[in-house]
Fold this sequence. Notes:
By secondary structure, this protein is an alpha/beta fold. The chain is built from ten helices and twelve strands. The chain is globular.
Amino acid sequence: MNPIVTPAWLxxxxxxxxxxxxxxxxxxxxxxxxxxxxxxxLAQHIPGALFFNIEELSDHSxxxxxxxxxxxxxxxxMSAIGIADTSTIVVYEQEGVFSAPRAWxxxxxxxxxxxxxxxxxxxxxxxxxxxxxxxxxxxxxxxFHATLNHEAVKNLSQLKDKIKNHQQILDARSAARFNGTxxxxxxxxxxxxxxxxxxxxxxxxxxxxxLKPADKLRELFLAKQVDLQQPITTTxxxxxxxxVIALGLEVVGAQNVSLYxxxxxxYAQQPESVIEKNT
Length: 279
C-alpha cells in the first residue's frame, strides 16, 4: 500500500470523525534561533489537526534523542489526545520532508494500521486552496493499544550483527558527514560511517518539497545498488531522517525494512565502534 495521500484525498475525508490529522513538524537542525514549530501550528493548521510532538513523545529516560518510548507510555499518550490505533491517521509537516515520516514510522511500529503521509504537507494543502484554521485542537480521549513491532526497530547489538553479516545499512545523513569531511551537529561525535553502510542522503529522496514518485525512488535505490528483496536497515543522526528512507522503501515495495533507533548519536559514542571515513 502506498502510504502517500493527496490533499484532495484528505479534503474528502475532513469531516470523517475516524480520520485523524497530525502536524508532526520538528524544528530543522542547526537553525538559530530554533524555529517554534508548535507556535506555527497554532497559527495555521489543517482543520482539526492535532500537534504530534515527536520530542515530547520520545523516551526521556535515555540521553539519546528521539528514542521510541515504551508501548505503555505511547498507549497512554495517544489515548489521552484522542488517537485510536484503528483510526485513519494522516501525518503532515509544515515545510518539506523531514520529520513527518518519523511520526508515520512510530505509529506504524506501535501497531496503527492506517497511517498516511500528506503529499506536499501543509504547503500543498494551502496551494490547493483548501481551508486552514488556527488555535489549539482537542479531541475526546480514545483507545490506542500499542504493540511494538520488534522487527521494525533495531538496537545497537542488532546493528552490529548486521555490520558483521554485511547486511544492507542505508545512512540518511549528508554525504559530507558520511564521508567524514563535515562535522556532526552533536558535540563530541566523530563524523564518518559504519563499515559497509551506503550513503543515501534523505534529501535525495525529496524534490519540490515532497517525496519523489515511486519510479524515481526505484531509480535512486537501483543507482545505490540497494537490493529491495533483502533486509535493509536505515539509520541517520538521531533516527528521524532514517524514517524518510523507510518511507521511500515502503513506496517502492521493499518488505524487510527496519530502523536503527539509536542511529549515529548512539553508534559513534561507543568506544569500540568502527568509524570509517572517505577522506
